[in-house]
Queue: 2 jobs
Job 1
Amino acid sequence: MTEILERFLVQRGHLVQTFQRADDALAHVRKQAVDLVLTDILLSGMSGLKLVQALRDRPDPPQVIIMTALEEINDAVEAMRLGAFHYLLKPFNMGEVRIVIDKALERRRLEREVSELRHEVEQRYEFANIIAKSQRMLAIFDLIRRVAPTNATVLITGSSGTGKELVARALHVHSLRRREPFVSVNCTALPETLLESELFGHVRGSFTGAIADKRGLFEEADGGTVFLDEIGEISPLLQQRLLRVLQEREFFRVGESTVRSVDVRILAATNRNLHEEVKSGRFREDLFYRLHVVNIHLPDLQERREDIPLLADHFLRRICRENSLGEKTIWPDALERLMSHDWPGNVRELENVLERAAVLTRGSAITADDLPLEVRERGPRVHIADALKERITLEELERRYIVALFESLGRSRTKAASVLGIDRKTLYRKLMKYRAEGHL
Ligand SMILES: Nc1ncnc2c1ncn2[C@@H]1O[C@H](COP(=O)(O)OP(=O)(O)OP(=O)(O)O)[C@@H](O)[C@H]1O
Ligand SMILES: [Mg+2]
């Protein structure tokens, strides 16, 4: 059978490799790009279903066609669920083979095209794992590109979940220190004394439990970058120690009096307003200015809603890939909810919501019903300030106001029409339209 098929396909101009064992075939596909795999379902070496899965899980996966007898038809169906393109029921003739193969290759061409286009879009809207297309974020990409290769200390600010850590990593990866260590320290993770010894190291016997000399993270990071996360939380004593590092690149190990020096670049992040902390005396002003050489401020997600579809798509694809959930899409009603939610937890919240939805949804599309209540509920968000920030159209402003008003008046059309100063028929027409669009 292998020989007959090979001869037939070569005649039709295809480049063909044949294998008697599934694992040999898989090894070949791992080495060389292959457009199409034609395989029996009963194989030696590994099961046909395993093979389909292994092939379809590959980056740039080949199309797979299964050859099967009627008794194994259930396996063929399962194979298609795992991503096989089609099956050929034995006995088959060469006419059928030709048709199925031509179709599979056409599909292969389309899959490639889609993935290339997607890649292109991602390239344009991705920078060191940060996904964004909003003007404000693109300006930040620009800033990162310019600041990264310098040794400038950077203070990264923004609310929780806006991507501060991602920015810190991007700064390191695009710096000349990229091959040296990137050491990230969460300043809230440890009490003061432990944090001090963690950062600067200690000598044996300097405190109970210090059974040997230990290098601190600043020494570990020598030549590289230290990222001080949640810097707003550190104690006055550590603020003083850090100031010395920033000014002189010098420090002492705990319990030691010889001064040590390091070559590190310092990045810091906080979700506090350090200006306020300085004013109220909780944060040293001199340290603040040393940290604040360059400031990168990440806007809240609700101030850059145009990033939401891109981020949602990115997270969904990643989650589905990591959990072998197959491809899923987001329905317009769900996307509309994602776009209008306020996201107090910012990008992290969006990521969590999609993770939950991807796992919970029964179908291959996420609908508004798969979203948590606080996202699904449409709050009346019609502040003019919001409208200004989002630059929404007059039509949308009108819609949000009418829907919110209508709801707040217990869905009375008469009352709503009289408050709006329009006649009931006009209002009715608008409400029907909103309902058809899923806003009501
Ligand atoms: N623009 C983005 N593109 C892709 N992923 C993002 C983006 N912004 C944030 N994320 C993801 O959201 C999550 C939170 O980001 P990150 O940890 O960098 O936020 P943070 O500002 O440090 O938050 P916190 O103040 O709570 O520590 C991470 O999983 C991160 O990968
Ligand atoms: Mg963080």
Job 2
Amino acid sequence: MSVRVEFVQEGKYALVSPGSMSVKELLSAVGADDATHVFVNGTLIDDLGRGLRAGDVVGVVRESIPGRCSICGRRAFVRIPYARLTLCKEHFIEFIRKRVGKVIEEYKLIKGGDTVMASISGGKDSSTMLQVLSELRKDLKFDLVALHIDQGIPNYSEKARSAVEELTRMTGAPLVLITYRELFNMDFPDVIHRDRSGRPPCSICGLTRRYIYNAAAVELNASSVATGHHADDIAAYALKALLIHDYRSLVKLIPRTETMKGGVAHIRPLYETYERETLLYSIAAQLPFVAQPCPYKPRNVLEDQLKTMFNELERTHPGIKLSFLRGIVRNIDSYMVISRADGQVSNETRLCRICGLPTSSEVCAFDRFTQRILGNALGPYTREVVKVKIRGLNAGF
Ligand SMILES: [Zn+2]
Ligand SMILES: [Zn+2]
């Protein structure tokens, strides 16, 4: 096995046999001594003297790449094969903003007067989303509120939280900050430690996160919740759903989904933005973001393999991810018919007997989960905490 060096700006890679090479020696071997950002397996590193192991993936971002901007002729920062463009930093920033703006318009994600609650993790994707939305709101005239959940994960959550705090200061978006500790009286590692069902940490995180942002959106009377899922995420989920014929999941993978009655719509403004573009945008626009994967993220799951496969296809068929995603939107009615015929989609919505939020069963998943692992259904308490935070926010407006 070799080390894979990805030239993020050019969408190219090289395979190098590591021997006993340091990162610095590797960069020099591939002609990237001018790297400004070096990532090893997704984590930004400062120590270029560190050694490499077979199987490592090294991502490299440089100040500029060979070539000139297609628009202004300045030094190039990125090549975008599907658009047949080479762009400088400034025109790349403009390109991404226009692209997100076009998705918002085409799929009617946001209209004037809306209140959008953006769920922000501190990573490159949702940071890009918040910053682009904060720029677009100047023309579109909507309100934007950021929500962040501090999970208390050692050596991770603190960095994520300070990135979010800095980003919201930069963008002027009011921040609703909720901590695991105030809800559960313990941090995320202790919550998953208590769970004996074998449920993966990501699934527990997703369940609590969804509950908190839906509760906050209902309280805020928001028009929608925006999440930072990008084209690479969604294409991988969608292909996986097709592979296992899970049409119920597939029909949710469109730019806007209306959730159950009494719930709030979910929007995905980065539907047509690639993952490498959110990384490069965060760097070009100098956004604060935590440049390391969550320690609980599993490696080499099917979604990751599908992402790698899509990126491989993208090199010979630029834009294939985009046409795949647009095809889902185009055919969504047919997929809805299949998933209904399969009995996979239930139209029934009711309100949770315990907390009163919309759910498809008698008691919502969050109340069932907290009842099981903490002995106490925490839905009503969580809604109360969220209410107090949002009141504080309104007072500060
Ligand atoms: Zn330019
Ligand atoms: Zn409930």
